Amino acid sequence: MQTIRAxxxxxxxxxxxxxxxTIGTPLSLVEEAAEHTxxxxxxxxxxxxxxxxxxxxxxxxxxxxxxxxxLLSNAACKQLVERPxxxxxxxxxxxxxxxxxSSSFPSGHTAAATAYTAAVALTWPVVGAACAVPxxxxxxxxxHSGAHYPSDVAAGAAxxxxxxxxxxxxxxxxxxxxRLT
Length: 181
Prior knowledge:
The protein is mainly α. It is about 70% helix and about 0% strand. Helix 2 packs across helix 6, helix 3 runs antiparallel to helix 4 (about 50-80) and helix 5 runs parallel beside helix 7.
């Protein structure tokens, strides 16, 4: 546990020190688009309208996995684990003042982004690969902004992958309504 804390500290300080103009700005723009799942819902709408049956399946799978990931990360894990956000003195830029008061563990943004991306990738791999770029940027931004430790982001990604797997393997008649594959 001490090794994880030391690694979290070192990686958080290093990521927060990146130049906010060249790296932080693009990361912040993508994170803002992903805030409240706007990016993923917009992508799902585009897939449903433009992607035919396969697009509708990918969109529905992605949204279902994202909803499950948010339930697991925000409604369950954050209530069970009270972890403070990284110390403000580690973060040398103003973004540290714009972060939630909730538990740091796990990253709900990363859980949602990973769940959506993984579920879409299972249905339509090329589109899932395209979604992976902004999903990874969201994860990196959560550490750069001082909102999360790297281990929070890793836990969020694990929750997201698990959620996509669960949606993909729903039993019986449920798979016809959610998975549709």
